[in-house]
Structure formats: C-alpha cells, structure tokens
Amino acid sequence: MTVTPVQEQPPLQRTPLLRTSLHAGIVDPEMDSMRLLSETAMKFPEALSFSSGAPYDGNHDLANLSHYVERYLRHLRDQGVPEQRITRLLFQYGPVNGFIQDEVARMLRHDEGIEVSAESIMITHGFQEATLVALRGLFASPDDVLLSVSPAYVGIRGAARMLDIPVKGIVEGPNGLEPEAVAAAARAVRATGKRPRALYLVPDFSNPSGTVVPLEARQRLLEVAADEGLTILEDNPYGLFARDGEKMPTLKSLDTRGDVIYLGSFAKSAFPGARLGYLVADQEVTGEDGSRRTLAQELSKAKAMFSVGSSSLSQAAIGGILVENDYDLTSATRELAAVYQERLAASLDALAEHFPPERYAEHQVRWNVPRGGFFLTVEVGFEADLAAMERSARDFGVSWAPMSMFYLDGGGDRALRLGFSNLTPAAIREGIARLARFIESEAGA
Ligand SMILES: Cc1ncc(COP(=O)(O)O)c(C=O)c1O
C-alpha cells in the first residue's frame, strides 16, 4: 500500500480581533470589576474573605438534591399526572415560562402576601435573567432611562449595560432609597428630554449597604412611581432573613396599580447552583386585536430568545423544596436566618471592640448597623480601592470589597463592604482583628 505524504499546510493567518471592536459591555473595565475582585481574593486563599455574598454552605448535602427532585416527582404523581408526561416534562424542552409557577404562586402568597396567578409568573435563570427579560421588555426607546439606587448590586448595572440602557444612579440615604430623591431624579431626566422608564431597588437589606426602606417610604415610593410613570423593579433576595417580627411588606404586596415587577431569586432561600429565580409581572397587556395577556406571558418572547426555558432539573429540585416545606420558605429558612443574624451580630460586636467610637479621630472608622441581610459597609480614612484590598489580603490575610465598585456615578472611595454570610463567628472575629491591623497600618502609611 502506498501512503500519500500529507501536504504541509501554510500557517494559519488569523484575523486580529481587537477587544475595543466588541460591544461596550465587554470592553468597559467596570464590567470586569467583580471578576477582578474575586481573582484578587483567590490569589490569597489563606485570607479570610469578606469579599463575596456567597450564602452559608454548611447545610449543603448532595443527598438532598435527588431527594428534592424525587419529592417533586411524587407531587406530580399525587396530582395524577401520567408517568409519560412526567418523563417528557423532565427530559424534553419545556414551557418557556417554566412549570413550577403554581408552586411559586403559593409560596408568594404565604411568604410575601403577594396574590398573583401562575400566569403572572415566569421562572428564570436566577434574578439575573429575570432582570434582562424585564429590562428588554420595558425599554422600547433609546431615550428610556433606568433609575437605580446607588450604590447598587453589580448585576443591575451589568444587565443594563449589556442592553445599552442608560442608567441614572440615585444615592441612597441611611434608610435606603428616598422617595423625594426618586421624584427629583425623574424630573431631572425628563428635563434632558429623556424618559425615566423604571426604577430598580432592593428595599430589604440591600446589597451592598444592608439598608431597609421603611414602610412609609415604601408607600410614598409607590405614589412617586404612579406620578412619574415609573415601573418599579423590586429585587428581594434577602427579605426572608429579617429578625422575627421585623419583616416588611414587599412593594409588590402593597402595589394596587400594577406598577411593580417583582424579581425573585432562589439563590439565597434555596441554593445558588440551581440558578433559578422568577419574575412576577401581573400587568395586563392588551394586543392590537383586543387580546389580553399578562406581562409575564408577553415577556416570554424575550425569555425564549435568551434561554429557551429554565432547567427542568433545577425546577424539579426547587419545586421539591417548595412542596416539602408546604410553600413556606419563611419557616424553612428560620435556622438559616438565625445563622446570618448571629454572623451580623458577631461582625458588629467585633467592629465595636476594635474601633471604639471615642477614638474615632484616631482610626476614622465608622460603619452602618443593618438589621439583617448579608452585608454591612465600613467607612475608612484612606482610599479603599482594589490595590488596598490586595495589600489587605496579601499582608494581613483579610479580603473585602471596595464600595466604589457599587456606585453608579462615582463615590464610595473611602468605604468597603463586608460580606459576612459565609464566615463563622470565630472567623469573623479573627477577620475583623486582621482588618483592624490593616487599617492601622494604612493610617500609619
Ligand atoms: C441584590 C441581589 N439581587 C440578586 C442576587 C441573586 O441573583 P441570582 O438569582 O442571579 O443569583 C444577588 C446575589 O448576590 C443580590 O445581591
């Protein structure tokens, strides 16, 4: 047999691709800030990390995954769903808006006092996809502007950036977003010829600041939204972790006009690896032919093009958690809420021990006192940027997040965020002792 020699190929001439030729959402260094933060923190694995908001993972047990999926399948069988349909539901492409909306509606009624039909709910890949879908649907013109609390969770700025939606930040006060500041921002946007279209906020234990909007301000925010023609995007991943008796009504439960879209996540109430969340949009949309559908149904066109549907396995696991707990995530997360409350208290006690208020002139450290959530903010007397965080992690063994990363229009240069959710009280005490040594050395420098 004769073997033909392989012809030598000329070297590949790849066309150079400049990063600057890509979409602004990819090019903008701000969009990379969370990755840089976690990479910097990960360079120092020995450091105690206050830099993320990862939930407590001490209860995670692999055996639970199959248990919850089985629990959901049993629930379907108990309802008389034929075996063949169950198999198809799990293995095939499923309905775009998901298949656990009934269970989520029952949970919302129980936990949040939100009364909506299953047709008003879309199951999504976490809060993040819910936001992308809601923004895509609402923002129809390049003149539409998103108003957002500032400092804000990076996911909202990123989602808006990816969709080329302009954002105007409204700096919050000690009690979160102030309604009159929202009204002023809406007027300011309108004065430039643009339209304030929606308002994003986290009324309960905001990320990064841990603030809670008081009840009166919630009612006033709804009035401002009605007056200014704003749709409120209410993001609520931490509301369940309030102290007993302190849980506030969500804006959605107070919304009588249909001005609120509620964005939910199972990342903190169940587990983030499921990547599951949901959107509640019960607004009625009238078509040109007079047809009427909920906004969640209308928005399924966006969801179909972003992700086709949400994972059936994740829906089954989360559905199983809801069924097993009788649609009562408040009770199901009581122990977890106590864990977070203990960690918050340990953080506040350690800060008070190391930075006595009577010696403020010396250390220049001040912090807020949230009543729940995963985060608190600390003001310091020096620039707390990523380079400072790296010095802190490398030389003192403690990492945190620069607050400036969360401000939309500048600010927070001398402040840091402490995320205490995934550190034990002992690690928190040690971490804050290390932070105190770092702060002392920066002050000396
Ligand atoms: C304010 C806020 N919203 C939403 C989320 C969760 O989003 P997802 O469901 O996409 O994990 C987080 C998590 O860090 C958050 O802090």
TrEMBL record:
Q: Check the record and name the CDD domains matching this protein.
A: AAT_like
InterPro entries reported for this sequence: Aminotransferase_I/II_large, Class-I_PLP-dep_aminotransf, PyrdxlP-dep_Trfase, PyrdxlP-dep_Trfase_major, PyrdxlP-dep_Trfase_small
Spell out the Gene3D superfamilies in the cross-references.
Aspartate Aminotransferase, domain 1 (3.90.1150.10), Type I PLP-dependent aspartate aminotransferase-like (Major domain) (3.40.640.10)
Q: Keywords of this protein's UniProt record, alphabetized?
A: Aminotransferase, Pyridoxal phosphate, Transferase
Q: Which domain of life is it from?
A: Bacteria
Q: Which Pfam families match?
A: Aminotran_1_2 (PF00155)
Output the Gene Ontology terms for molecular function: transaminase activity
For this protein, the record's SUPFAM superfamilies field holds:
PLP-dependent transferases
| Domain Aminotransferase class I/classII large span(s) in chain numbering | 61-435
The coenzyme or cofactor needed here is: pyridoxal 5'-phosphate
Tell me the leader sequence span.
none
Name of the protein in question? PLP-dependent aminotransferase family protein
Q: Which organism is it from?
A: Streptomyces peucetius
